[in-house]
Amino acid sequence: MANFEKHNILWQVLLWWGGWHLVSFLLANGYEYPNDFMARAMASLVAFSAVVYINLKALLPKLFFQKKFFLFFGAGISLLLLVTVFLYEAILPLLDWFDLVAPREGPPLEGPPPETNRRGPPPLGIRLVIQVAPYLIAFLGSTIIEVFRFANRKEREVIQAEKEKIDSELKFLKSQVNPHFLFNALNNIYSLAVIQAPQTPESVMQLSEILRYMVYDSNEESVPLKSEINYIQNFVDLHLLKDSRGMDVQLDLAGASEDLRIAPLLLIPFVENAFKHSKIENLKRGYIRIHLSTESEWITFKIINSIPKNKFTKDEVGGVGLENTKKRLELLYPDGQHQLEINQTDDEFDVVLKIAVG
Predict the structure, then answer these.
(1) pTM for the whole thing?
(2) CA–CA gap between residue 189 and residue 199 (Å, rounded)
């Protein structure tokens, strides 16, 4: 960073100094007096360097970017005047880039000495403006460049801060979701172990796949849809093993293209919510319908669950609800990249989610 700032000052000094003297060389016939021109150019290099360096290192960061605009412009004017006085009074004579004395052409006239068209030096004010002009251009030019650089840097910082905020929010939301799934899976395995069910080893393997997905795949920005489908299938299977009589759960995932990619752990909260609130253990009235399909680059996920007549509370500890999922959708698929419809009646809860994926 320090080297970059040094290079920035150097190239700006060369830019303004070189540009001004190139124009002066062409307009003021500098090629007729190259030695004098080079002497003046080398002397003015000190002035250009002082203006650019002091402006970039002191005036802009300590005054302008601190919103002390009056102090900035006052200090800038003072800097230009000091540099000009020092250069033209201490090192160089008065400015004479241009021929301010134009001799009269033609044969001498008879009679009294004619009046000449020789002009004296310009007024002090005009002379000062001419002398200050190159350093004023360097001062304003370096200011404009640095203001643009400062604005771009701030914009990048805002974008980076927003990205870090989004990443932090997503990590926080995931940290809330994962333990809840883990608790449900462990409860299911515990139930199987208590009754010494023969399906216990298979369920342990399913739990292992769930943990692998949560620990490793969930850290990726996106995963194959197949991974999310396997997670849902394992989650549902573990719940169904709780009741050997068979719960009314229909799972239709065959119509999904497994090659599409999706944010991990995005669909499972809706499945968890359905198991949590449908009272699926009621074999007569409880039901869950899950359907997943893909069309072109869209994923459509539908889930319907029954709502029991009597209110009940289940698995309050560790539950995260649908609000966190809505926040994740807004962060991961903004600006029309997802559509979420939630409808609820006295008997049924219906969710339709469409996600645009590549």
Answers:
(1) 0.53
(2) 10
Answer yes or no: is pLDDT of 66 > 80.
yes
Calpha distance 130→114 (Å, rounded): 31
Closest CA to 141 of 195, 222, 86, 80: 80
Identify any residues that bridge with 340 across adjacent strands, giving them in sequence order. 353
Quick check: 16 and 137 in contact, CB under 8 A?
Answer: yes
For residue 292, which of 257, 241, 243, 344 has the smallest C-alpha distance? 257
Here the tokens at position 20 are: 């001004």
- Give Cβ neighbours of residue 259 (< 8 Å, ≥ 6 apart): 224, 225, 226
Q: Which amino acid is at 107?
A: P
Cβ burial 271-299 (10 Å sphere, 16+ → b, else e): bbbbbbbbbbeeeeebbbbbbbebeeeeb
> Nearest 10 degrees: CA dihedral of 295, 209, 349, 293?
10
Q: What DSSP designation does 251 have?
A: E
Distance of alpha carbon 5 from alpha carbon 23, whole angstroms: 27
Report the distance separating Cα 131 and Cα 83, nearest Å. 10
Q: In which residue are the tokens 């960061």 written?
A: 61
Q: Which two tokens stand for residue 348?
A: 């049924």
Binning the chain into helix, strand and coil, the percentages to the nearest 5 are 60, 10, 30
* Cα distances (Å, whole numbers) of residue 105 to 70, 97, 109, 112, 119: 51, 22, 11, 17, 15
Lowest-confidence pick of 34-43, 170-179, 212-221, 340-349: 170-179
Which of 22-31, 134-143, 178-187 ranks highest by mean pLDDT? Answer: 134-143
Q: How many CA atoms lie within 13 A of 308 on its CB side?
A: 17
